[in-house]
Design brief:
It is built from nine helices and ten strands. The protein is of the alpha+beta class. A hairpin with a 2-residue loop joins strand 4 and strand 5. It has two domains: 89 residues, E3-binding domain (Dihydrolipoamide Transferase, Irregular), CATH 4.10.320.10; 204 residues, 2-Layer Sandwich (Chloramphenicol Acetyltransferase), CATH 3.30.559. The strands form two sheets. Strands 1, 4, 5, 6, 7, 8, 9 and 10 form an eight-stranded mixed β-sheet that branches.
Length: 318
């Protein structure tokens, strides 16, 4: 109200009167609010109502302070900001030392985790994700892995490479205006680490022999686990494979790395009953999920891609 009177003038005043500074106005507003909150009482009786303006109440909530335990030093026994800060400083230390209530923990995210959060948020909010799923017989892939003793990711990459050659829109980057189809495959391989998700890239994956591909993926896995990946290891991806089965995962909705058009997720193979050629048998089945950018890839193309990948897995090595 004081700020308004300064503008329109009180009876007998002239328009030449200077308006109070913002600081003065703010102080006047707070003083008016405090007078309303505390009334004319000179102190808060034991067990009486807490006298504090909304700003002070919010500060107390943020710091986890019960105002009923705070003695006010303001007019009429009102609790001030300084009273709340003093109470917080003398309170027992909270779980994280940041004002969280006892029994809770506030954790500052690591640089890696903040980067992951920023990148995934950008992908999820800007890319219209659609995911298709399906099972795949893992018999031949698992047999090849047992005989060669390589990382499973290498066999998944080998199975998807010919499919990418047949569906170039999936081995591509998109900037919102232009789709760039790549001849070489920069194969991102998603990996779980103590620091969080990382996606190092196998450069020119299609130009490597099976032994070279396995060796490079093993190098990246070791680098991810020991935090020795280089910046160059993390760039150049054009498609991504995520072996969520390594941590016991099944079907999911993988998030597409920003700028690329698709990601393939393969879960842990589990035995199930399958019907093949009119007969029934038990076989290990991979749960497979393909997420794609619907701006540049249609559902029909994604289904054909997924079916081709399933066929590549089921005829692996033939």
């Amino acid at each position: 109200m004081g700020a308004l009177l300064a503008v329109i003038g009180e009876p007998g005043e002239t328009w030449a009167r200077a308006a109070p500074t913002p600081t003065d106005a703010a102080r006047a507003a707070v003083a008016d609010e405090m007078r309303t909150a505390v009334g004319d009482a000179t102190a808060r009786p034991p067990g009486g109502p807490v006298k504090a303006v909304p700003l002070v109440r919010k500060l107390a909530r943020d710091l986890g302070i019960d105002l009923a335990t705070v003695t006010g030093t303001g007019p009429g026994g009102a609790i001030t900001r300084d009273d709340v800060h003093a109470a917080a400083a003398s309170a027992p230390e909270t779980a994280a030392g940041t004002g969280a209530p006892a029994g809770e923990e506030v954790v500052a995210l690591s640089t890696t985790r903040r980067t992951i959060a920023r990148n995934l948020s950008r992908s999820w909010t800007e890319i219209p994700h659609v995911t298709v799923w399906g099972p795949a017989d893992a018999t031949r892939v698992l047999a090849a892995r047992r005989s060669e003793d390589g990382p499973l990711e290498a066999y998944l990459v080998r199975a998807v490479l010919p499919v990418l050659a047949a569906f170039p829109d999936f081995n591509a980057t998109f900037d919102g205006e232009t789709l760039t189809r790549h001849t070489a495959v920069g194969m991102g391989v998603a990996m779980d680490t103590d620091a969080g998700l990382v996606v190092p890239v196998v450069k020119n994956a299609g130009g490597r022999s099976p032994a070279e591909l396995a060796a490079e993926i093993e190098r990246l896995i070791e680098g991810a686990q020991t935090r020795r990946l280089t910046p160059d290891d993390m760039v150049g991806g054009t498609f991504t494979v995520s072996n969520v089965g390594a941590v016991g995962g099944g079907y999911g909705t993988p998030i597409i790395p920003y700028g690329t058009t698709a990601i393939l997720s393969v879960g842990r193979a589990r035995e199930d009953v399958v019907v093949r050629d009119g007969g029934i048998r038990v076989a290990p089945l991979f749960p497979v999920a393909l997420s794609f950018d619907h701006r540049v890839i249609d559902g029909a193309s994604a289904s054909r891609f997924l079916n081709a990948f399933v066929a590549s897995l089921e005829t692996f090595g033939t």
